[in-house]
Specification:
372 residues; alpha/beta; 8-stranded mixed sheet; 4-stranded antiparallel sheet; 12 strands
Length: 372
Amino acid sequence: MNAKERIMAAINHQALDRVPTDFWATTEVQESLLNYFSIREGEGAGEESPWIGLNGGTLSRGVKGILKLFDRMGIDGMLNVMPPYIGPEKREAHGLVFNEWGFGYREKKHASGTYLEQEHYPLADAETVEDLARYPWPDPDWYDYNALPGLIDQCGGRAVTVGYAALFTYHNYLRGLETSLMDPLLDPEFTGELLRRLGNFFMEYHTRCFEAAAPYIDTTQVTDDWGSQNGLMTGPDIFHQYYQPFMQQAITLAKRYDIAVIHHDDGDCRRLIPDFVSMGIDVLNPIQYRCGNWDLARLKADYGKDICFHSGIDNQAVLPMGTPEDVKQEVTKLIRNLASDGTGFIVGPCHNLQPNTSLENILALYEAAAAY
């Protein structure tokens, strides 16, 4: 099997030659690994594009660099491709960088790395449906969908993800987390209109992506973060009433084009997994099993025939603070439980590998997956 065949066989619960692997990491970690393997700056240059990245973030040196890194580390890997933005020029003000949605970000340096953190939420002060009507919503015309096949062609035959439909997440980005959690309780009409406008944009955007490149797209994300360290961030009734109907539309759209659906959901989202199964989610990422103390064997027994589990190697404790042997034992434990039938699991960290994780532990992760 090649890398893409291995990833897609796991998603489709087919027999595997070995358990496939994926890679999410901050740019600092990518740089450390590229330097460790002496992958030079020029090897990641050339026909590069900012519209190709990891499913968990941006690439340090472009797609050529990450493909060489995948080859050196024996990683199957998945790449994320976006239609290039061709809309109005984005602005900067007061030290903030604004995207086409009006989200304002500032670069902040921490001991664990440098991150763009959102500080401006453009609809934080909106109060009425009329305020929503006056907001300059992005236009689906602002993207070059016809560029997608050419961008995918640069991905070295790896599995490719196109699309990110995340209604709850974008509600957070527009209003701020605390306000967005209160909206459905305090103003159902306002919330319904905001989500309707978001949903309409996502449906049009993704329809155009799929029309332009469906034969070359393997997966898409219909995603959101509902889980916290223990339990859900909001009641399941809020999910069912306000967000699930749109998610179902987005999943149905992807299935119409024969594209597998990934649902990314950090934290303890166990109460919603039966809904994810009934809605047709194909891949659940990550299995952050230490959030709420999941029973991995029971998870596989209950849902393993319906959902492929993606990532789960703990990066709250094991990866940053354990030894290489601890990491190998962690990898073995997850494979034994989540791939107990020989398929249906893709090995990877449960979130981006952070700079506080040693290279020895990162290498141990992928060595253990290959050796199992």
